Amino acid sequence: MNVAGDPPLPRAASLADVPVLGDLLEAVGAEGLWIATEPPLDRRRFAFHIRSFIERENHLCLVVPDEDGSLLGELTARPEGRRCAAVGLCVALRARRNGIGSTLFQACIEWARARNLSQLALKVFPHNTAARALYAKFGFVEGAPELRSIPRRNGDLWDAIPMSLAL
Ligand SMILES: CC(C)(COP(=O)(O)OP(=O)(O)OC[C@H]1O[C@@H](n2cnc3c(N)ncnc32)[C@H](O)[C@@H]1OP(=O)(O)O)[C@@H](O)C(=O)NCCC(=O)NCCS
């Protein structure tokens, strides 16, 4: 990745991106700290799941491609209730702190406003200070922590903080 200048812009994902989307999710999941996904990724299940984000008119799947065909970042959003969308995103470890998360979020907010949504919502682990700072920068507010609500493969239960942005 060339880090000079502005961060690369997101584009809508296509079905051809599904394998590299899986690679990115699996790599970030393997860090073991930030997202609910944990390796190994069930590729068939993932392909079925992500396909709906790519194909459904009221869903969003954005990717930021790298020059080598891999992905620097991705963001998904799906309807949650009538006028809210639930968002998830991740940026490859090698590409963080270059503005990619911000460009993904900016594009998501524009998508949500164009659809006349009134809210974006997500959940974040309390120890994820980078993500909490990114969301706070965009105006998200934190709700009461949902204690021991996210199961991990080793049997642990992690807390999650719900965050929302009024549009
Ligand atoms: C959270 C994440 C998406 C941020 O993406 P990013 O591309 O690194 O973010 P940006 O470069 O656009 O940073 C935007 C702002 O976020 C905050 N931020 C990002 N990384 C940070 C860090 N390590 N520490 C503190 N603040 C941070 C800062 O406010 C930053 O603005 P600034 O650079 O002007 O100070 C990225 O760290 C990531 O993918 N982490 C692993 C997966 C994950 O946590 N996903 C979200 C699960 S809820």
What does this structure look like?
The protein has 167 residues and is an alpha+beta fold. The chain has one domain: Gcn5-related N-acetyltransferase (GNAT) (Aminopeptidase), CATH 3.40.630.30. It is 30% helix and 29% strand. It has 4 helices and 8 strands; from the N terminus they run E-H-H-E-E-E-H-E-H-E-E-E. The protein has helices at residues 18-30, 43-55, 100-114, 129-137; strands at 11-12, 60-65, 71-79, 84-91, 119-124, 141-142, 146-151, 157-166. Strands 1, 2, 3, 4, 5, 6, 7 and 8 form an 8-stranded mixed beta sheet that branches. The protein is globular. Bound molecules: coenzyme A. Coenzyme A binds at residues 28, 34-35, 89-91, 96-102, 122, 124, 128-131, 133-134, 137. Residues 28, 34-35, 89-91, 96-102, 122, 124, 128-131, 133-134, 137 line the site of coenzyme A.
Observed structural traits:
167 residues, binds coenzyme A, Aminopeptidase, alpha+beta, globular
Unique bound compounds = coenzyme A
Total E-strand runs: 8
Helix content: 25-40%
- Count of discrete alpha- or pi-helical segments spanning 4 or more residues: 4
CATH class placement:
Alpha Beta
Major β-sheet annotation:
8 strands, mixed
CATH fold annotation: Aminopeptidase
CATH superfamily: Gcn5-related N-acetyltransferase (GNAT)
- CA-CA gap between termini: 33 Å
